[in-house]
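Annex B. Sample input.
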Amino acid sequence: MLDLKFIKEHTDEVRRAVANRQMAAPIDEILALDDLRRQKITRLGELRRLRKEVSKERNEDKGKELRIEVKALEDEIKEIETRLYELLLEMPNIPQPSVPLGKDETENVIVYQPEELPGFDFEPRPHWELGEKLGIIDFERGAKISGTRFYILKGAGAKLQHALIRFMLDLHTKEHGYLEIYPPFMVKKECLYGSGNLPKFADNLYHDAEDDLWFIPTAEVPLTNLHRDEILPPGKLPLYYVAYTACFRREKMAAGKDTRGIKRGHQFDKVEMYKFTEPSESNKELDKMVDNAEDVCRKLGLPYRLKKLCTGDIGFASSLSYDVEVWAAGIGEWLEVSTCSNCWDFQARRANIRYRPHPESKPEYVHTLNGSGLALPRVLIAIIENYQQKDGSIAIPEALRPYTGFDIIR
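Annex B, continued. Sample output.
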């Protein structure tokens, strides 16, 4: 959430930021409502002073009339403040000055890309073909059980999936300094408001209306809310968390090449990194987080590239983001496996997460950062397609062999 004071004092900057994001936002309505609210508050103060004077005069009829008027005005102000808060929730974050200008993903900037991609002495096949022939992916039974965009991993496929999750969690906890969290996969709606998913992305979420619980679209949601409504003591920051969760999204998917295979689905697994930091350190911590995501690719031996997202492509809550993409040789595509973002104090304001720099300091909002470390099943796709052999088998990356217990899938 943007600070209302910031919007009022930097209105032109906010307008440019929203335009650069290729978005619309209720800036004029926010400013008009705030003016109206201040007028009403001024009038309320006058009525309260008048009511005190009338009380001294013991004029009961006039006093009753003023009490009714004061109550009505208080209710009006509450309604205005509620609407103002709702409008502020619709405002996206402000991109940092270093974010490249661009209208959409086609104008993202490649920061790193390998000079050459691994070659094959045969025509590499897509993962859906390899997976079915090896009996490790079952699309037909997944659809029978749950419908389109669902699949089943079997045998070595299921073991490979779990090996990846355990490997990534161990890497982040043992080498990168994160604390592992196993959070609930369903949360209260306040958590989704805090992370920035509600109200904007309600149509993309699965909701249990009876209990008013929401399936998480990413572990970013529960991790953001670990310290909701808290003031962290001096010396507590930075905090590093990592979590594995299943993720659930109702995203509408267009017909086309993405309908094949396991690239997109309504349920998928992900290992998520999350940080709470002091404002002055957040961009440095973002660089570290990006390197942590890249480290997964390096250790798995996967060709990857790094992109800096432009203003038209960064997420709603983000002020600065990088994508890590891995190469999938069978489908001939770069697949996004991580977006690492610095959200500044945007989520902290929504979730009311603050810290004290010093024991006597006034509480300040923390900065929050999030990034996949990494997202499945696209890492699974990259391993299947990049490690495929001429005979249709799949070699297991060396880093994963202690976790799988086998070095090849035949």
